[in-house]
Specification:
This protein is of the alpha/beta class and 212 residues long. The protein is built from eight helices and six strands.
Length: 212
Amino acid sequence: MKMKALEQLMVGTRPALVIVDVQNDYCHPEGALGLEGCDVSGVKEMMPRLHGLLGAVREEGIPVIFIQTFHEDATDSEAWVTRSSGRSAQVCRKGSWGAEFFEIAPRGGEIVVNKHRYSAFVNTRLDSVLRTLKIDTLLVTGVSTNVCVESTARDGFMLDYHIVLVEDACASYSREAHEMTLANIQGYFGTVAASGELMDIWAHSKKSTLAL
């Protein structure tokens, strides 16, 4: 039943893959959060699925949008620097190794949107990019599931995009936090799906097209 509903959602829509904050400070064991004691094992576990999904999306010709966080003095408001009890002050500083992409990188023509807050829609060009490409469905992936990924998915839904949160292509620093977001998105903001389910839909669509 879930697969059928997912197929109905994907057929006739114009999706884009949105990859949120897959950067060294969030993902690498020697990044800022790893050194602070955050458990990045969930990132290691999900990366093969993200690589597989990214390859499939590129093969399908679906647009890929990389979200990259930068923090600098110009955007560090008094309120913003208090996040995470001040522990995130040195995360993804502009020009740093920590702000660079982790194990993935945009290819020529693929879009990078820079953000300075949790949501990729807040004070960025993301909505303008999506409208220009006539995208109506977002396949949301990345790190961390319960913070920047969820914030982006929620705001995308509020702006009238269909949301598909790809559960095995995003990661948090605890399984509990990851699963809370899955339940929240499924309940109120979109659909939760595995990367394999999406790839099966595309493969089935190809077979159906060839059979015509």
